[in-house]
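agent> Task received from the user: take the single chain below, predict its 3D structure, and emit structure tokens. No templates, no multimer pairing.
agent> Plan: (1) validate residues, (2) run structure prediction, (3) serialize to tokens, (4) report one or two observations.
agent> Step 1 OK, no nonstandard residues flagged.
tool_call: predict_structure(input=
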Amino acid sequence: MSRAVMLRQFPPQNPPLTRGYDKKEMETQTKLWTEQEARRLLELEADAIFGLDHRQDHPVGTFTPHGVNNRNVYAAHLWSPQAQFTVRQADIPVTVDEESSRQNYIPGEIPLLLRRLCSLLNLPLSCIQGGPSYVVPLDILMDSTQQPRTALPILTSSDDSQVRQAKELALPDNWEADEWAELLGGKLGPWAMAVDGREPVSICFSARRTPKAAEAGIWTHTRHRGKGLAPAIVAAWARLEARGKEAIFYSTSASNTASQSVALKLNLKLLGWIWKLEKPAGEETQ
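)
tool_result: status=success, residues=286
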């Protein structure tokens, strides 16, 4: 299995929510950022995940969809209680009308504009996938004592001796040899991994990154899940990747309760939800 397959953050179907979001949580989330701050965070994450076309001019406060370079996504809508941010391929007719722009943010509810676009393109609703997005807070980024303790040693890309040690480890089954070499060689950004003997059993790295932001990519071996490894390596990776960046993000799918529990254990700050209208299976651009 390639790293690209492993990084698919949204499952092929969009199941019902597995945890609820109450009114108190929504109120707390609303107080975290101003409208301008939330919109900036949504823009940074959209750029990291989808690759914005920066040749276009989009005045602040407009709802004009931004162009993206990711050809496997027709359109995406990132929203929070304070702001929203829409992206689309240049040839996709996304129109954010007044009704869509005023739709109230509800976690787990597909945005109206993506429903309409899905119908316009004659695509099944299952092509729309979504999940929560979080921001890694400063206390994790600035204070190494906030990192959860683990029973297994953690290697990071910031230590040359640990990089050499990682190069002696067995190749994980879900990584291609060339991609693994790129990771350990530093071409994919910083990383952190928990090790059991000669085997990497939990890895966090930069799934997507720009000079201003980065998105976490994480994998834990099935027999090592539930042991607290994921929160520890996410925290270790985030501190390395945060240098010089405006924000560090962690997002997952609606059904991935294990990944959501990592966010809860680290007290990551819920930004909002990311919804995307993808190409049907088998039509993706490699």
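agent> Step 4: summary for the user.
The beta strands are 66-67, 73-79, 84-88, 128-135, 154-156, 191-196, 199-209, 213-220, 247-251, 269-278.
agent> Done.
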